[in-house]
UniProtKB/TrEMBL annotation:
Coiled coil: none annotated. This is Carboxypeptidase regulatory-like domain-containing protein. Pfam families: CarboxypepD_reg. GO terms for molecular function: carbohydrate binding.
Amino acid sequence: MTIVADTTTTKDFSLTAITIIPGTGTVSGTVSEAGDGPLPGATVSVSNSTGITYATTALIDGRYTVYNLPVSAGGIGYTVFCGANGYYPSSQGVSLSDAAPNAIADFSLEKITILPDTGQVSGKVTKSSDGSAVSGATISVNTGTEILATISLIDGGYTVYNIPYGSYVVYAGALGYESSSSPASLTSGAPNAIVNFALTGISINDNLGKMYGMVTKAAGGALVGATISINTETEIFATTSLIDGSYNLVNITPGNYTAVCGALGYVSDTKLVDLTGTDWVNVNFSLAAIEITPGTGRVFGLVTRASDASAVQGASLTIGALSTTSLFGGEYMIFNITYGNYTVNCVAAGYASANAPANLVNETPVMVNFSLTLGGEPPVPEGTVPLTIARNGPNIELNWNTTAYPAIDIYYLNGDGTGQFSNTTGWTLLAPDITVSPYSDNGQVGTGNDERYYKALVANIDPDVSPVDGDPSYIASAWAVGKINYAFGGGNTFFSVPLRLIGNMDRIMGNQNFGDGAGYVAGSRIYKQTGDRTGFNTTDFLGVGWTNTLGIDPDKGYYYYNTGSEITITLVGNVPLSAIPETMSGGNTLFSVQFPARYAFTVFGAGTAAGDRVLIYNRLALPTPGFDTVNQSQFGVTGVRLSGMVGYYYYRDPLAAPLVWTPSLP
């Protein structure tokens, strides 16, 4: 409506009477200006975790009432938001039950004083489904040193005031809706920006994980606009905290995860969360402000996808030893950087890595944005760097992606000759002669011919702190096992080798080097299990008189007969990073436990049938190749403990469907 000076303008309104629904509750109260009288026209909205929002405006005397709010015997929690143009918003929590269906929430709003040399962001928040207004939504801007926030009014409109000139990410979120973000830039010549949001409603799946809680500052008070996220390795679930610090994160794939909460200018907080059930799980976070060192600089910016400019969350940004991750809106900020020239590195799972220069000469923040293209090597969590193994004559070589990881440290543990590696003596830093292939982005280093377990970390990561290696006395599964020695005594020995196929890769271990011929005695031979028979075929053995290498299949068990006193087998290559499913078809299936991995007490998957059994090869009891049908582990749902030094035979009713079983690592 337009009002012209010295004229009279009329506007008619048609009000619809509210029909009171029996068995519901109300929230009522007054809205006033701090230190003054009533504040008519202020918006009061009431929301619950399902996203249902009820809204009204304060009357001429400041009174308001929100009707027809659902109640229950145990009580339903609501958040009451109150806001008005030109005033700081406020919120309160209430609970409505059958016994106490009515609540009172009074508000006293403080008027905003407009500061010089600042701008504002304004716009509307609507539903993506029908374009109708969303009232009570939180809109926030984090400058890195302060967080400015407001709520949307009854028509969905909002304004965030007193924003210093610069480039920022504007967040919008509301209970029951997916959070959204959008960049905005304010300058002295264009101090005002319009940013509209269309929020998508969330339909909560009762069969999936749900968590809720509060994000607060360690120094006290709610922390608005913080990112709360869970990375399941296949999907990132994320949201942002509201004006009162509350958040809901729903529809998460069931499992145990690490929830991360972060905000510009604060030290991130992490919590272990069990979301294997279907109940709501309460998880609260407290973030401490980063202490700014005088005389240092900052680098900030946005990480986006090149194809559509959408935000990339969870990217790793590093400058020397300093690092951070991008938040929900793709923004990041690295603090306390000594003045100088740097390279900012950006790595994100599923994207090609990128880097850009940054020159810091004073405390003025330097902006460095990244636009990432899909592809590249996904980083391994906890600072680890993926390694692959290559055979080069009697030696081995480690390879890694130098574009994704331009600066790494390689550590190793020495083996004890039986495939076990203890870190009780600490990790040793490898000082390699690193070379980069001229036709690829792979780094490569030769490591000699020692029995070692290797791992590579992003430079300056403490090998004894990150990543977690499980049992500190035994490394069950290596990032890269360059070489494993296994001693064979005289006579018959069953052995299992770490031969598995991963994706479209060739055999991981390839040809095996049997001690470079050392200790071999003519007549020694390896027997291979074939067909569906229990045991080994003594007429089907692999060679007589071999002295060095021998190709062996990744899906067979083997029996070695040594006519001498002792020989050492040397395995060269990668060991898979995790347990690999085994398919137990009907009939007899021989399987080799991954050597040197030991499997913990393991429950076989759903579908085990009566009569299923595991036959264990016990070389102490049997003088000849094969399995003892008397020496077996009967199991059902209780599981069976498997040793990494023994071979097994699984029997299943030939008419039964295949059983997929995933052994668990220690």
